[in-house]
Amino acid sequence: MGLSSHLVLFSEVQGTVLKEGRPVQGARLTQEIVWSDNKNDVPPSTVSSGSDGRFMFPAVERDAGVMRVVPHQPVILQKITISYEGVEYTAWRHTKNSYEANSEMDGRPLRLECELTRAADFEGTHYGICKAL
Fold first, then answer.
1. Is the pTM of this model over 0.70?
2. Mean pLDDT, the chain cut into blocks of 10 residues (133 residues total)
3. Sign of torsion, CA 19 17 47 120?
4. DUF6795 domain: which residues (predicted)?
């Protein structure tokens, strides 16, 4: 990590919300991040899925500041929930242990397929109804 680098708390996320294999329009997705003692340091971000079921969250970054010189192990709690037709789904839960972009998927971009009829379960190091593509 260079002196001018940023800390990536949550890499860019692109995905699709499906129900029984068909795109879901208007699902509300909320992204939450906890990475410091101040639980409200990063306010939640909300988007809605489009007519094709697609959604996108931009990368969430912070300036490195003194964190670039203080030895520590990052522990970043990531969560995405989906609300649709009065039901809330756990889409993505993950603990990120690096400030590098795309470290959630070992360097691959974060692309998700979220099937509302799928039971939440573990897939590798993340939990939820979304499957990494």
1. yes
2. 72 98 98 83 95 98 75 90 98 95 95 98 95 95
3. positive
4. 13-118
